[in-house]
Specification:
6 strands, mainly beta
Length: about 120
């Protein structure tokens, strides 16, 4: 006995995302940092802070003050002309993914009593 058959599926997928896949979101994010801020010789770091702790103190100080080191936002483009969408818009995509499966199976007997 031989059996054959198959399956076809037309999968329609719609997916959205609010980030770029790495960590930047579609809402404005302000990273607080002491990078590119020169605190050396400034009155903001007390003389009682040891020199080995200056970078730690500068980082904490910039966090307390809310010094923005890098603003980030993921911008979304859409349409045939890739027009810039408003902040907060989600990126989306639609796709049709066809799925095919074929199988064949057989059954045979060596002897009438042995399958």
């Amino acid at each position: 006995m031989i059996q054959t058959g198959g399956t076809y599926q037309r999968n329609w997928n719609f997916h959205t995302r609010t980030d770029n896949g790495v960590g930047i979101n579609n809402q404005a994010v302000y990273q607080i940092t002491s990078t590119n801020i020169n605190f050396a010789g400034s009155p903001y770091i007390p003389s009682t802070v040891g020199s080995s702790f200056n970078s730690i103190y500068a980082a904490l100080y910039s966090e307390v003050l809310g010094l923005v080191g890098q603003p980030q936002v993921a911008y979304i483009r859409a349409g045939n002309n890739l027009q810039l969408q408003p902040n907060g818009s989600s990126a989306f995509d639609k796709a049709v993914i066809p799925y095919y499966s074929v199988y064949a199976g057989d059954t045979w007997k060596i002897k009438p009593s042995l399958t």
